[in-house]
Automatic annotation (TrEMBL):
Classification lineage: Eukaryota, Metazoa, Chordata, Craniata, Vertebrata
E.C. code: 3.5.1.26
Protein name according to UniProt: N(4)-(Beta-N-acetylglucosaminyl)-L-asparaginase
Catalysis performed (reactions): N(4)-(beta-N-acetyl-D-glucosaminyl)-L-asparagine + H2O = N-acetyl-beta-D-glucosaminylamine + L-aspartate + H(+)
Sites marked Cleavage: D201, T202
Entry function: Cleaves the GlcNAc-Asn bond which joins oligosaccharides to the peptide of asparagine-linked glycoproteins.
Domain of life where this protein originates: Eukaryota
Length: 342
């Protein structure tokens, strides 16, 4: 019994020291329990498609299914009641990126992002100009508003536009709707930040093929009740996602206004380049933000070119564990994984 106990303890310690993901390629990993998106991307890889195809199809599935109301049309209306979309895709072989932000009228944001990458020499297109570009590239213009998003907007107006993301303005944004004007003097913002997981559920996805080629992408309808024109971390290179086929890929989700200031996806990939395990790289990227904003809501997924993967998240009230999806040859179906926040 004594020896068995020691063996069990040794095995437990060894298990805890193992990386979260075992090395296995090809690999698809994405934020949140968006299983159908994972399955769509995995199907592409299984049929011989490229990692770019996999990321595009996976994110597009979430856009079509309006994952959690935070991806795709009909969710997260801004202060004017409009739903706008952000997306990005990155080729880890060529380091090319295509991204769109504040996109209107077009449901397939990740598709438009890829068109920016493949049909222009630009990296990021925004607003009405991005929508016109999409229409010129053959994307169908449609209304992104739904009864659900109209109801969210209506209830927000009835609740005196709470929560909102204004400060140092009049009338008092904690009690009243706009239009707002600047206060004569700046004051420290004493209002508590509203941690709402349903407002931040970006899909971030990483795909690797059997030879270690990497692509990453994101898609979101942004922050509910955001200031019109707001762009979060999702379409920003190195913030929402990053891919480099010589090191790996990473994708983030959460409070983009804070997270984008630290380029967590870029940091995580660079840490993996120096030999850091994906789990450790993810944790360090979160720790860097936590040092300045201890109460921020956010998580990140990481994968290196050998197929090891990991994730990390910041622990706040109501968010103590982060769930994500993985597909690799170890299972026939996408698997739901989780990591405890710290």
């Amino acid at each position: 019994m004594c020896c068995q106990g020691k063996m069990f303890t040794s095995l437990l310690i060894y298990t805890l020291l193992l990386p979260l993901g075992h090395a296995s390629l090809p690999l698809v990993i994405n934020t949140w329990p968006f299983k159908n998106a994972t399955a769509a991307a995995w199907s592409v890889l299984q049929s011989g498609g490229s990692v770019l195809d996999a990321v595009e199809k996976g994110c597009a599935r979430c856009e079509m299914e309006q994952c959690d109301g935070s991806v795709g049309y009909g969710g997260s209306p801004d202060e004017s009641g409009e739903t706008t979309l952000d997306a990005m895709i990155m080729n880890g072989d060529t380091m090319e990126v295509g991204a769109v932000a504040d996109l209107r009228r077009i449901k397939n944001a990740i598709g438009v992002a890829r068109a920016v990458m493949e049909r222009t020499d630009q990296t990021l297109l925004v607003g009405e100009s991005a929508s016109v570009f999409a229409e010129n590239m053959g994307f169908i213009a449609e209304d992104l508003t739904t009864n659900k998003s109209l109801n969210i907007f209506s209830q927000w107006l009835k609740g005196n536009c709470q929560p909102n993301y204004r400060k140092n303005v009049i009338p008092d944004p904690s009690k009243s709707c706009g239009p707002y004007k600047p206060r004569a003097t700046l004051e420290q913002n004493k209002r508590a930040r509203h941690v709402n997981m349903r407002s931040h559920d970006t899909i971030g996805m990483i795909a690797l093929d059997t030879t270690g080629h990497v692509a990453a992408g994101t898609s979101t309808n942004g922050l509910t009740h955001k200031v019109p024109g707001r762009v979060g971390d999702s379409p920003i290179v190195g913030a929402g996602a990053y891919a480099d086929s010589s090191a790996g890929g990473a994708a983030a989700t959460g409070d983009g206004d804070i997270m984008m200031r630290f380029l967590p996806s870029y940091l995580a990939v660079e840490l993996m380049r120096t030999g850091a395990d994906p789990s450790a790289a993810c944790k360090t990227a979160i720790s860097r933000i936590k040092r300045h904003y201890s109460e921020f809501f956010g998580a990140i997924i990481c994968a290196n070119t050998t197929g090891h993967y990991g994730a990390a998240c910041n622990k706040v009230d109501g968010f103590s564990q982060f769930h994500f999806m993985v597909s690799n040859p170890e299972s026939d179906t996408p698997l739901l994984k989780s990591v405890d926040c710290f």
